[in-house]
Amino acid sequence: MDLHVEIVNRLTEGFADGEIAVTVEGNHATVVVRSRQFEGLTVVKRQQLVYGCLNDLIRDGSLHAVSIDAAAPDG
């Protein structure tokens, strides 16, 4: 499995309207997602939505750490 491709695919599925950027180094990922789904949500809730797309990769050890920058397109 190509972890970068897998993460991008999952985030694209979860945030169809989103702009997504992913960097992977080993089993650590940096994720930037801009989506209207985040409008009006707290930082914690936005992160929970992103983690929801990736939780099984974290559980099975494929992904060890994730840095998340999630916001609405305007901010």
Keywords, separated by commas or semicolons:
3 strands; 2 helices; alpha+beta; 3-stranded mixed sheet; 39% helix; 75 residues
- Overall outline: globular
Strand content: 25-35%
Question: Termini, distance in Å?
Answer: 33 Å
Instruction: Please describe the biggest sheet, giving its number of strands, its sense, and whether it closes into a barrel.
Output: 3 strands, mixed
Taking all Cα atoms into account, the compactness measure Rg is: 12 Å
- Mean pLDDT comes to 96
Account of the 3D structure:
With 75 residues, the chain is of the alpha+beta class. It is built from two helices and three strands; from the N terminus they run H-E-E-H-E. Strands 1-2-3 form a three-stranded mixed beta sheet, with helices on one face. The longest helix has 17 residues, at 43-59. The radius of gyration is 12 Å and the shape is globular.
Short description:
By secondary structure, the chain is of the alpha+beta class.
Show the helix and strand layout.
Blueprint: H1 3-14, E1 19-25, E2 28-34, H2 43-59, E3 65-71
Parallel strand pairs: 2-3
Antiparallel strand pairs: 1-2
